[in-house]
C-alpha cells in the first residue's frame, strides 16, 4: 500500500510549554495523593506541637508560696512573683510542702524571715527560695538606702542564663523543619523513582518531543515547590506556638531549597537500589531516622553525648538545622550561615554525582 | 516505496550477575514499508520488546543499525519523536490524573491542542470516561488510553508493544478494530504480540521471532502457504467403516480412535465431498495450517503462550 507522507512541521514543542504542563501534571498528582499531603505538610507541624508540649512551655513557673500567719515582707513582692496563699499554722504549711501542694512557706517573726522550701518539687522550691531571698535583699537595700541615702549600695542585676538559651519551640522548630525537608526529599525522590521503574513513565516521556531532562527538571521543581509550601505552613504553626521569626527568616528559602536538593540526591541513590515501594520507604527510614537523631532535630545537639556531636558532622540535616536555627531563631545574618550553605551545596553536588554515576538508567 | 523502518543486523546482549549473558537480540534485520501493518510475533522472552525498544531509540544496540524515517533514533531527537507514537507494555500514566488530564498533558508534550486530545478520546471510545481517574479504568480501557496518548501527536509511525496482553477476548477484539483503523488512516503500525491469531488477523507482514532471532518474515498467508501443510479433517467416530476410512485416506493419512477419525489430506475438497455424500459429517472439524504450525516448523518446537 502506498501512503503519501503527511506534510507537517517537525518543530519541537517549545520547551517552556512542555515544562509547564509537566509541572502542572506532576503537581496535580502530588496534591491528589492524600498520603503525600499528610506526610509532607501536616506531619512536621504535628511533631512540633507534640514535642513542644512534651518538653514543656519553657516558661519559669510561678512558685506557690504559703504565708504562715502574717509575713509583711511579702507585701513588698512584685505582683505576679508568687502565687500567694495563707496557711493556718506551720504544721499545715509543712504538710502542704510535703504533699507538693506548695513550693515554699514563709514565716516572719519581727526581723526574722524563715523560708521553708519544697524538696518534693525541688525546681520550684529553689525558684521560690531564690525569689524570696531576692525579695528580702531588696527590702533591706530599700531600708538602708533610706537611712543613708549617700552610701553606695551594690545592686545585683540577675539575668538567668536559662533565658538566653532557647525555649523548646525555638530549638525544636528549625530541627523539625529540617527533618521534614529531609523526609520529603528522601522519600519523595526514592518513591518517585520506584514508581517510574514500575510504570515506565519516564521511558514513555523520553519518547515524546519533550526531553527527559525537561521532565526531571519538572519533577525537581515540584519537589522544591512542595518544600517551600511545607516551610511556610510549618513556620505558621511554629509562630502559633510562640516562635518569633527574626528579620532574616527569608534566608530560610535558599537554605530549604539547597537542603531539598541534597535530600533529593540521597533519595535518588535509594531509589536506584530499592525495587519496591516498601523497600524504598524502609531504606529511606534507615537513612533519615538516625540522621534526625544525630543532627539535633528533636533535641538540642549540645545535650547529646560527644560522639553524637562528632557523628553529626557527616549529616546534611545538621547543617540545614544549624542554618535554619541561625537565620530564623537567632536572627543571624545570611553571611554567618555561609559555611552551612557551602557544606549543603557540596554535599548535594557530591551525592548527585554519585547518584548519576551509579544509577541504572536502563531500569527506568 | 519508502521504508519507514530499516533494521540491519541488530545485536544486544544483557549481562546479569545471576543470569549470565543473555543474547536478547541476535542479528535481527527487517524492513517495514510506509503504511504497512507489521507484526513481530514470538513467545515471551523472544526479544520482541528489546528489539522494539532499540528501534524506538530507548536502548542503544551493541551492534547494527536502525533507520527510522530515514534517520537514526539514537540519540533522542525531538523532530523524530514528533513523528512517532509509542505505546509501552506498562501503562505509563501520571498517577492520580483523570483520563482527560492525562491525554491533555500528552497533547501538550506533542504540541497538540485540547481539541485533538478530545478527538483522540472519542476515537478510542473513552469520551465518557474523561473525568475518571486512570487507575480506575479496566485493563482494556487503560490500553485504549495508552494508544490515544500514542496517537495524540498525529504520528506517521506507531509502535504498539503487546497492547492486548492480559485482556479478555472481547476487549482484545475491540482493540483489533482500533488498531485496524489506525493503520487505515495511513499510519505505519508496528505491533508486537504473542497471539498467533492476532498477528494473522491484523498484520500485512509478520516477523516470527524466537531466542533473539527472526526466523521468518512474510505475510501470514505466504508463511502458511510456504509450509505446504496438509489440511486436517476430523469427524466423529462410528460413521464410517474401517475399509471406507482407508479408501478415503488415499493420498493422505487417517488415524482413528474411539472418539474421532482424523484425516490429513492435501485435497480437502474431494475428501469433504465424499464425506458429505456418505452423510458422515457429524462432529466435522476442518483445520488448515496456521501461524502456530509455521512457528513449529521454523523453531522445531511447540508454540507456548
Give a brief outline of the structure.
The complex is a heterodimer of chains A (364) and B (305). Chain A has 364 residues and is α/β, with parallel strands linked by helices. Chain A is built from 13 helices and four strands.
Could you please describe the fold and organization of this structure?
The complex is a heterodimer of chains A (364) and B (305). Mean pLDDT of chain A is 86; it is low at 1-13. In chain A, helix 2 (34-55) packs parallel to helix 8. The longest helix of chain A has 32 residues, at 168-199. Chain A has a four-stranded mixed beta sheet, sandwiched between helices. With 364 residues, chain A is an alpha/beta fold. Chain A has helices spanning 15-32, 34-55, 90-99, 122-147, 161-164, 168-199, 201-206, 212-240, 252-273, 277-294, 306-311, 316-329, 338-358; strands at residues 64-68, 83-87, 104-109, 112-117. Chain A folds into two domains: 19-56 and 165-363, no CATH class; 64-159, 3-Layer(aba) Sandwich (D-Maltodextrin-Binding Protein, domain 2). In chain A, strand 3 and strand 4 form a beta hairpin. Chain A is elongated, with a radius of gyration of 30 Å. Helices cover 34% and strands 28% of the residues of chain B. In chain B, the strands form three sheets. Chain B has a six-stranded mixed beta sheet with strand order 5-6-7-3-8-9, sandwiched between helices. The two termini of chain B are 35 Å apart. Chain B has two domains: 3-220, 3-Layer(aba) Sandwich (Rossmann fold); 230-288, YebC, transcriptional regulation domain (Alpha-Beta Plaits). Chain B is built from eleven helices and 13 strands. With 305 residues, chain B is of the alpha/beta class. The model of chain B has no long low-confidence stretch (mean pLDDT 91). The longest helix of chain B is centred in the middle third of the chain and has 16 residues, at 169-184. The chains are: A alpha/beta (364), B alpha/beta (305). The A-B interface holds A 1-6, 8, 10-14, 17-18, 21-22, 24-26, 28-29, 32-33, 195, 198-201, 203-212, 362 and B 1-2, 33-36, 56-59, 76, 78-79, 81-84, 86, 88-97, 101-102, 104-106, 108-111, 149, 153-154, 156, 186, 188, 204.
Amino acid at each position: 500500500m502506498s501512503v503519501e507522507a503527511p506534510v507537517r512541521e517537525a518543530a519541537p514543542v517549545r520547551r517552556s510549554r512542555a515544562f509547564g504542563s509537566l509541572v502542572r501534571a506532576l503537581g496535580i498528582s502530588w496534591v491528589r495523593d492524600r498520603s503525600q499531603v499528610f506526610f509532607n505538610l501536616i506531619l512536621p507541624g504535628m511533631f512540633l506541637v507534640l514535642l513542644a508540649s512534651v518538653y514543656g512551655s519553657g516558661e519559669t513557673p510561678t512558685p506557690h508560696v504559703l504565708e504562715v500567719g502574717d509575713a509583711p515582707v511579702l507585701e513588698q513582692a512584685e505582683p505576679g512573683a508568687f502565687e500567694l496563699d495563707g496557711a493556718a499554722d506551720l504544721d499545715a504549711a509543712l504538710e502542704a510542702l510535703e504533699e507538693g501542694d506548695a513550693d515554699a512557706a514563709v514565716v516572719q517573726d519581727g526581723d526574722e524571715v524563715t523560708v521553708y522550701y519544697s524538696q518534693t518539687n525541688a525546681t520550684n522550691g529553689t525558684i521560690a527560695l531564690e525569689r524570696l531571698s531576692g525579695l528580702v535583699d531588696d527590702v533591706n537595700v530599700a531600708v538602708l538606702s533610706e537611712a543613708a541615702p549617700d552610701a553606695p549600695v551594690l545592686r545585683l542585676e540577675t539575668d538567668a542564663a536559662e533565658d538566653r538559651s532557647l525555649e523548646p519551640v525555638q530549638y525544636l522548630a528549625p530541627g523539625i523543619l529540617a527533618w521534614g525537608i529531609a523526609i520529603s526529599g528522601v522519600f519523595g525522590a526514592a518513591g518517585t523513582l520506584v514508581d517510574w521503574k514500575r510504570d515506565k513513565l519516564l521511558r514513555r516521556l523520553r519518547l515524546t518531543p519533550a526531553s527527559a531532562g525537561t521532565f526531571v527538571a519538572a519533577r525537581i521543581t515540584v519537589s522544591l515547590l512542595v518544600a517551600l509550601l511545607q516551610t511556610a505552613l510549618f513556620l505558621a504553626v511554629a509562630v502559633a506556638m510562640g516562635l518569633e521569626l527574626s528579620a532574616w527568616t527569608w534566608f530560610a528559602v535558599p537554605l530549604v531549597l539547597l537542603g531539598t536538593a541534597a535530600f533529593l540526591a540521597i533519595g535518588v541513590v535509594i531509589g536506584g537500589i530499592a525495587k519496591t515501594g516498601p523497600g524504598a520507604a524502609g531504606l529511606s527510614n534507615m537513612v533519615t531516622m538516625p540522621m534526625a537523631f544525630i543532627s539535633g532535630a528533636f533535641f538540642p545537639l549540645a545535650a547529646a553525648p560527644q560522639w553524637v556531636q562528632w557523628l553529626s558532622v557527616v549529616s546534611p540535616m545538621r547543617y540545614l538545622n544549624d542554618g535554619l536555627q541561625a537565620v530564623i531563631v537567632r536572627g543571624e545574618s545570611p553571611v554567618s550561615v555561609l559555611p552551612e550553605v557551602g557544606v549543603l551545596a557540596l554535599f548535594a553536588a557530591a551525592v548527585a554525582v554519585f547518584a548519576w554515576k551509579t544509577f541504572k538508567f536502563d531500569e527506568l | 516505496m519508502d521504508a519507514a523502518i530499516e533494521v540491519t543486523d541488530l545485536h544486544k546482549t544483557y549481562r546479569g550477575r545471576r543470569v549470565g549473558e543473555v543474547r536478547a537480540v541476535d542479528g535481527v534485520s527487517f524492513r517495514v514499508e510506509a503504511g504497512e501493518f507489521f507484526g513481530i510475533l514470538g513467545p515471551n522472552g523472544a526479544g520482541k520488546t528489546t528489539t522494539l525498544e532499540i528501534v524506538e531509540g530507548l536502548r542503544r544496540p551493541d551492534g547494527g543499525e536502525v533507520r527510522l524515517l530515514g534517520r537514526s533514533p539514537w540519540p533522542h531527537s525531538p523532530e523524530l519523536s514528533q513523528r512517532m507514537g509509542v505505546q509501552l507494555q506498562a501503562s505509563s500514566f501520571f498517577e492520580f490524573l483523570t483520563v482527560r488530564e492525562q491525554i491533555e498533558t500528552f497533547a501538550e508534550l506533542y504540541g497538540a491542542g485540547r481539541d485533538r486530545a478530545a478527538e483522540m478520546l472519542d476515537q478510542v471510545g473513552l469520551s465518557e470516561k474523561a473525568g475518571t481517574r486512570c487507575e480506575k479504568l479496566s485493563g482494556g480501557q487503560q490500553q485504549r488510553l495508552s494508544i490515544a496518548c500514542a496517537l495524540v501527536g498525529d504520528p506517521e509511525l506507531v509502535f504498539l508493544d503487546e497492547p492486548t496482553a492480559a485482556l479478555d477476548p472481547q476487549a482484545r477484539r475491540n482493540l483489533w478494530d482500533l488498531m485496524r483503523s489506525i493503520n487505515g488512516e495511513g499510519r505505519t503500525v508496528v505491533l508486537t504480540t504473542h497471539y498467533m491469531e492476532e498477528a494473522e488477523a491484523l498484520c500485512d507482514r509478520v516477523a516470527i521471532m524466537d531466542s533473539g532471532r527472526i526466523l521468518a518474515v512474510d505475510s501470514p498467508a505466504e508463511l502458511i502457504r510456504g509450509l505446504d501443510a496438509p489440511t486436517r479433517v476430523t469427524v466423529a467416530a462410528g460413521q464410517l467403516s474401517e475399509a471406507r476410512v482407508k479408501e478415503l485416506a488415499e493420498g493422505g493419512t487417517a488415524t482413528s480412535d474411539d472418539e474421532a477419525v482424523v484425516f490429513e489430506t492435501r485435497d480437502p475438497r474431494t475428501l469433504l465431498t465424499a464425506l458429505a455424500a456418505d452423510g458422515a459429517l457429524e462432529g466435522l472439524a476442518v483445520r488448515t495450517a496456521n501461524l502456530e504450525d509455521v512457528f513449529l516448523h521454523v523453531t522445531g518446537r511447540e508454540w507456548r503462550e
